[in-house]
Amino acid sequence: MLSYLHAFHAGNFADVQKHAALTLAVAMMQAKPSGIAFVDTHAGSALYDLDSERARKTAEADAGIQKLWSARERLRSPDWQPMLGLLADQNPGADRLKQYPGSPAWFRHLLRAEDALTTFELHPSENRQLAEWAADRRVKAVQADGLAGMLKLLPPRQRRLLVLIDPSYEIKGDYAAVAATLEKAWMKCRHGVFVIWYPILTSGLQQTLLDQIRQGSVRKVLRSEVVLAQPPERGMTGSGMLVVNPPWGFDQRLSAMLADVAQGPDGLGVDHRVDWLVPE
Ligand code: SAM
């Protein structure tokens, strides 16, 4: 039974890091003309209302994307432009954001004619909203398990691949399942770019994912972590991203983006670091 709903968390500090890394990876890959197969294994619904009861209950976006939006004219990295562009389109003239795009909408915003996007979402109501949104947008929305579904698509018809793996980790076994799936996917498509989100928890459960990947065959795994400067005593204290086969220079450009938003009055109140979990 799936109980996680991303509407409670959309636009939080973890989404800022995740969608910054995602839009940067897509934009850098699109510097070359050949088509890219994009796969979103845990898509959620494509758009979130930040004024909804669910969003207001946690108010997580206030300490996340709303801060970034307030600071938009002071951001130094030009790599924020794709994110700022879609936020402006979705929220014309707004000083405070009402709509926040989920991962399928970020992919869709950047999709070129030669690219393709397949999304997986298991939750019936999330998938219904996603399918309605996707209907006329060249997006294939599938209600199925995202890890198994993604493996079936590999290798893709397009020459290049970018997969976002963003589970809710409601099931403890998800950490090991993600690592095992990455290993299989990499065997089928060694040049693919795989972007994996994970929570940093006081329980340390994420260590299973990191250890299993470190001990496996996959090479060239970049790790980006943002950690709350004032963490809660229990629960999620930070947000992590792994990027397998990042485009050259991605690490410096992502660091520059995160440095823009880490601290200061409009900052997310986080420390950030980028290193190689597994080198080449
Ligand atoms: N990727 C989205 C974004 O960045 O906007 C957020 C996704 S949310 C963290 C995780 C989603 O995975 C939830 O909507 C949940 O219903 C869905 N989910 C859970 N188990 C799944 C599975 N086995 N396959 C596909 N989707 C699943």
List ligands, each type once. S-adenosylmethionine
At the fold tier of CATH, the topology name is Rossmann fold
Tell me about the biggest sheet?
A: 8 strands, mixed
Q: Write out the CATH superfamily name.
A: Vaccinia Virus protein VP39
Q: Please work out how many helical segments DSSP would assign.
A: 10
CATH architecture: 3-Layer(aba) Sandwich
Family: Belongs to the RlmJ family.
Catalytic activity: adenosine(2030) in 23S rRNA + S-adenosyl-L-methionine = N(6)-methyladenosine(2030) in 23S rRNA + S-adenosyl-L-homocysteine + H(+)
Enzyme class: transferase
Subunit structure: Monomer.
Description of the molecule:
It is a single chain. The chain is α/β, with parallel strands linked by helices and 280 residues long. The chain has one domain: Vaccinia Virus protein VP39 (Rossmann fold, 3-Layer(aba) Sandwich), CATH 3.40.50. The protein has ten helices and ten strands. It has an eight-stranded mixed β-sheet, sandwiched between helices. A two-stranded antiparallel ribbon has the order 2-3. α6 links the parallel β4 and β5. α8 packs parallel to α9. The model has no long low-confidence stretch (mean pLDDT 95). The protein binds S-adenosylmethionine. S-adenosylmethionine (SAM) binds next to loops.
Keywords summarizing the entry:
single chain, 280 residues, alpha/beta, Rossmann fold, eight-stranded mixed β-sheet, two-stranded antiparallel sheet, 10 helices, 37% helix, binds S-adenosylmethionine, S-adenosyl-L-methionine, RlmJ, Ribosomal RNA large subunit methyltransferase J, rRNA processing
